[in-house]
Amino acid sequence: MQRSWTRLVLVLGLGLGLGGVLVATLAQASGSWVASAPAVQVVMSDRQAQSADMVPPTAELARDQVMGRVSWQFQPPPGAEVNARLCHAGGCVALTGPRGHTEAFAGIPADSALYFQFSLQDRGQRAMTLQGLQVIVNHHEHERASSASYGDRRRESGRCDS
């Protein structure tokens, strides 16, 4: 009887262990990360003000994953408008407003740093501080079957949806 009980515990333990591995694998299959940056002061129309980098909270969270939809938001002062772009090391996408989403970054590594760039729209415009800078990056496993590269998709969809 003692031997059967030990075997049952061992089998259940292995089953739970494999289930835990399966759950961990499924959890890594897709997900999202959220990051914020401190406020940015924008003072010129001909020079970009850049935010701090926004990265996943842990390196493991997005390892071996690629970006899908990226949502953004920032808060300009009431009634103020600004030129805004969301960037990574390979380039930038013009933003259509203070909040929205884009798939222009689809396919790039999900652990890549993102950052905002801002400039005033007019030379006569007063300096402003933009607050609430945030991105939400949805990510998933890299699809090896896809033949379109990030650059191809970016050229095809080179717009941001708001």
Secondary structure elements and pairings:
Blueprint: H1 2-29, E1 30-37, E2 40-42, E3 49-50, E4 65-75, E5 82-88, E6 91-94, E7 99-102, E8 115-120, E9 128-141, H2 150-157
Antiparallel strand pairs: 1-9, 2-9, 3-8, 4-7, 4-9, 5-6, 5-8
Give the structure's gist in a few sentences.
This protein is α+β, with helices and mostly antiparallel strands. It has helices at 2-29, 150-157, and strands at residues 30-37, 40-42, 49-50, 65-75, 82-88, 91-94, 99-102, 115-120, 128-141.
Would you give an account of this structure?
The structure is a single chain. With 162 residues, the chain is an alpha+beta fold. It is built from two helices and nine strands, in the order H-E-E-E-E-E-E-E-E-E-H. Helix content is 22%, strand content 36%. A hairpin with a 2-residue loop joins strand 5 and strand 6. The chain is elongated, with a radius of gyration of 22 Å. The chain starts with a helix and ends in a 5-residue tail after the last helix.
List keywords for this structure.
162 residues; 9 strands; 2 helices; disordered C terminus; five-stranded antiparallel beta sheet; four-stranded antiparallel beta sheet; alpha+beta
